Amino acid sequence: MKRRSLLVSIGLFCLSLLLIVSCTTGPQTSPDATSSSPKVSLGFSAWPGWFPWQITADKGIFVDNKVKVDLKWFDGYLESINALNAKQLDANSQTLGDTVSSLAGGADLVIVLVNDHSTGNDKIIVREGINSIQDLKGKKVAAEEGTVDHFLLLQGLKKAGMKPDDIEFVPLETGQAATAFVGGQVDAVGVFPPFTTQALKRSGSKTLFTSKDFPGSISDHLVVTRDMVEQRPEQVQALVNSWFATLDFMAKNPDVSTEIMAKRAGVTIPEYQEYADGTKIFTLTENIAAFQPGDTMNNLPFAAEQFSDFLMSVGLIQEKPDLSKLFDDQFVKAAAAKAQPS
């Protein structure tokens, strides 16, 4: 499983035009709704903040909100990004950093919802004997190149006054990186659930730092094509309404919800429950606040500028994209107005 790559190059964007979405595991489709509009193709992949979409489909919440949805599961997160860039999806679950990268590569996308912030589930895990970030100097550190865990690693190095070439970076797919770490082939690894569980099985291993140490640095979103916003805004609204209805269902039915999400994640219920504190699901009120201008990483316009600068500084994008039309909060505001008592 590849999760949340920050590197979406123009080359990958072009290649994605040839991507055949059917190569992923079979799509999961909600029952037909009453709407006569075409189905919405919505992608998601392995991350605790996106597993609720499985509840939305399984419990008929899309149908309740009168939208027909093909919910497509991607084993490879990067494949979902490529599919959205190629307009083989109408919407996708992806990070802010990836979306900025996609804009730089020529995609025309809109963020309409904040699913969550990573508050500890992204981890840099190290072997016995490494007790500080400075101890990583000259060590082999594995992560999937361009993913947010690579980004987290670079953020940690920067905070410690180190440069990327102070370590021996080993680019490996996330699952392979965890395996290499457990096998003693590398000294440290950047991973996310469920691979954090695997990595920590190495004797003497421990977490060095996590996304909790960099608040707001990893945010996850519902991202749609601009065509969706301009041509089918009622369906975008239905997706947003369905998300918040799902959060209501989860609050009222925690056991059933956890069972569905654990099954989709391929882990046991106790293992899934360990991930709960590492992801902060955003409420409606928190969504509205996130879209406002400000000077913290909790303010999306500010965070996008910071990501753009960072991606430029490490050479992951060649020029800063136009961020002026990236965010559209009309849908979360409409959802909030609908939720107000009459």
From TrEMBL:
Tell me which UniProt keywords the record has, alphabetically.
Signal, Transport
Family stated for the protein in its record: Belongs to the bacterial solute-binding protein SsuA/TauA family.
Listed NCBIfam families: SsuA_fam (TIGR01728)
Highest taxon listed in the record's lineage: Bacteria
PROSITE patterns in alphabetical order: PROKAR_LIPOPROTEIN
Q: Which GO terms describe its molecular function?
A: ATPase-coupled transmembrane transporter activity
- GO CC terms for this protein? membrane; periplasmic space
Q: Where in the cell is it found?
A: Periplasm
User: SUPFAM superfamilies under this entry?
Assistant: Periplasmic binding protein-like II
Could you tell me which residue ranges the SsuA/THI5-like domain spans? 56-255
Protein name per the record: ABC transporter substrate-binding protein
Question: What organism does the record attribute this protein to?
Answer: Pseudocalidococcus azoricus BACA0444
Give the signal peptide, or none.
Answer: 1-27
InterPro entries noted in UniProt: ABC_SsuA_sub-bd, SsuA/THI5
The principal localisation class reads periplasm
